[in-house]
Amino acid sequence: MRSQRLWSSRLNSIFIRMCIQLFLIVLTVIILVPIYNSLITSITPENQINRYPPNLIPELVVFDHYIHAFKSQPMFRFIFNSLFLSIAASIVALFISLQAAYTLSRHQFKGKALLILFILFPMMMPGITNLIPLYNVFSNIGLINTYIGLILLYLPALLPFAIWLLKNFIDSVPYELEEASFIDGCNRFSVLYRIIFPAAMPGIVAICIINFVLVWNEFLVSLLFTTEKSMRTMTVGIFNFIGFNNLQQGPINAASIAAMLPVIIIFLIIRERFMKSIIEGAIKG
Amino acid sequence: MKKDNILPYVYLSPSVLVLLLLSYLPMPYALYLAVTKSQLGSGERSFDGLENFSKILKDPYFWESLSVTFYYTVFTTLAMTVLGLVLALLFNKKIRFRALYMTILFIPWVVSEVVTGQTWKWLLNPNFGMLNYLLEPLGLKPSLVLTAPIFGLLGIIIVTLWKNIAYSTLLLLAGLQTISKDLIEAAQIDGCSTWKAFRFITLPLLKPTIMVVSLLLIINCMNQTGIILVLTNGGPIRTTETLGVYMYKEAFMNYHLSNAASIAVVLSFINLFIVAIYFRFAKSNM
Question: What is the ipTM of this complex?
């Protein structure tokens, strides 16, 4: 009797576990189908793309669409712009936010709570409502179509999160090390870069990569504040490519794959740090 | 801890300056643009009173967009929270291949809005789309979610879910992991069913996390523009035109700067209102 009950409850738990696995497999398929679909379209010969039923598995693999996408559009220029802006904005954001995070972590001063609120509040205010007034100002002072203008516009979306995350990291670095260095006559700058920088390295790497991904994927700001083709980023290039020719699905999908591949690879390499940082920035904020 | 005089303010000034100029001041400037109109010929602007706001409030398109935004926000947030909670509860258990599932689930989150919109648009292509072909045996024509007005927001809600579900799952999972497992085990030993343990222990303890996550999702949805711009551009017949999309069109396609600025001001106030309600709510719950 007892063994029978045990047996049935075990069967039950195996059944539940199988249901869970099935559910997650279906979910995984839903997640991967759009990406898979774009991937195979990007390597299917032109004459086999626009037909029904579509190929589920490519019969023949060609890379013509990638060549075409890079030839018909200044794709290298777009990639260079995206890459340059992502790296430059991440570096600028890192230096500004490191100073702020260190100050908030190590100093006591009047109005500190208010300043923290001031810095964190923009996290809850999406930048889209600011685009119209900023466009008006930036076009008047000639910052449209400039790298500096774009980097400035990305910063408000990057800084609050970066400052908060770095502050949490610096909080966990023991102060004794710095104290000793200060006594040895080190100044703030050398302490920051000799002691804090290495100790908070995991946080610094994480925030740089998150910022890189955010800028790489940024769309609306780049769309509105660039009018010259030579200043467009990858996302804007793809957006215009879609509008320009809806029939060239091969090259459009090739460009999409080229745009998503670098960030997916970066994410796969440091996924754990990445996920942990997102939790820390959002929940503890 | 150090006590300094003026130095902390100096160190903080770059961040504060950037945020002040690019995040805080644009809003009053939008208000200025909304209550003035540009004079023909000269670049100067003259006071126009609340003319633009009354124009916006009389504009049926504005109200349509507001209701589209409202429904989109409500349904997306609900779906995202519930599905995120289910997934978080699953991932909180020891299941096989957990890390692999989590990683795959997270991939769409690092894909840009434009690429997300483009891949889904192609997947849902009415003529050659793979999804039509795959779901044909079930008698479904999924491409309709983007082309038939009766499906309205369904298409963009599905795509938003696809892109962002990992985010809410991850944050809810983080909240779940702070809840002690002993508590639930103790309750179960006392004869509490799994459902009751969830309803009366896990859920109340998870409430603060759920609140933060839904606030982030609500604000995100209220201002969603990129995905919709690529996927449907507000169509079919304006059924997916959110306030963000309407504002974008007014400013950069119809060149009605003052109108767009008024919409921006209204949207900012809605955002502020939501945040204010959230903090009232959070405070009274403490």
Answer: 0.86
